[in-house]
Amino acid sequence: MKFCKKKYIKKWREDNKDRIIAVTKAYREKNKEIILIKKKEYRQANKEKLSIYNKKYKKENRGYYNAISAKRRAAKLQATPEWCEVEAINRLYMWAKEFSVHVDHIIPLQNNKVCGLHCLKNLQLLMPEDNLIKSNSWSC
Dihedral through CA 100, CA 106, CA 109, CA 114, nearest 10? Predict the structure, then answer.
């Protein structure tokens, strides 16, 4: 019987999935900062390539992204009370667009633990990178 290195490696990986996951997780935890720096450097060096890839991916998965957008619009509508200051909110969004900042919900509209309202008192302006880090999280 002939020894096949590829088959041996494939079988070893299948037999040791838990071990591989544990080692990978430990490595990522230990080298978190280095990995983040390398990812940032890669994104900076490959901006155009990643932009093209992301546009192509979104185009190929348009249904998925349309569903996400529809869910977001529905949540926003459902979270907007009748007494809401719609004109003031619209001015805030226009101002944010003009100065390239994000409008963020302090208490997220969609979260497992809490759901906020879409009103002026629940909105804040954040730099884009800060808003992307925050995502839909909330801390009291």
Answer: 160
